[in-house]
Design a protein that fits this description.
single chain, mainly alpha, two-stranded parallel ribbon, 5 helices, 2 strands, 5% strand, Phosphoethanolamine transferase, transferase, Sulfatase_N, PEA_transferase, Alkaline_phosphatase_core_sf
């Protein structure tokens, strides 16, 4: 009963949050005219529950990322999570806040990286094959790969 009451109070507080914009001056900068450019595609794979110490791409001796190793990818090894739960770590990764300053309420009240990319004119979509975007992609097209 206590948990249910807490949940309802939190939900009512979230309804009154006013979203604050960030990165309103963001734009795509290109040196080449659009006719001379090939389309660019960037795919960000979020594996927030994976342990970096067990990633071959990060130096782990055992082969754990054989398919990724064969591709021209960038592996960011200097990253950390804001929490051990997906509901905390995913919104934090896309927020402007670091681990020390992050809170659920701040994340809901502030636009995130996805919003900035969209505003800059970059076609941005969220494709999900797990437990959802945790409000990160509330304002863009979403595709659930398991529906």
């Amino acid at each position: 009963v206590g948990s249910a009451a807490s949940f309802l109070v939190d939900q009512s507080r979230e309804q009154s949050i006013i979203l604050q914009p960030i990165g309103s001056d963001a734009e795509v900068a290109d040196a080449l005219p659009s006719a001379d450019r090939r389309p660019r595609v960037t795919i960000v794979v979020v594996g927030e529950t994976a342990r970096a110490q067990n990633f071959q791409l990060g130096g782990y001796a055992r082969e754990t990322n054989s398919e990724l190793k064969r591709r021209d990818i960038i592996y960011f090894k200097d990253t950390s999570s804001c929490g051990t739960a997906t509901a905390v770590s995913v919104p934090c990764m896309f927020s402007v806040y670091g681990r020390k300053d992050y809170s659920h309420a701040k994340a809901l009240a502030t636009e995130n990286l996805v919003d900035v990319l969209r505003r800059a004119g970059i076609k941005t979509e969220w494709w999900d094959n797990n437990t959802g975007d945790k409000h990160v992609a509330d304002r863009i097209k979403k595709t659930d790969l398991f529906k």
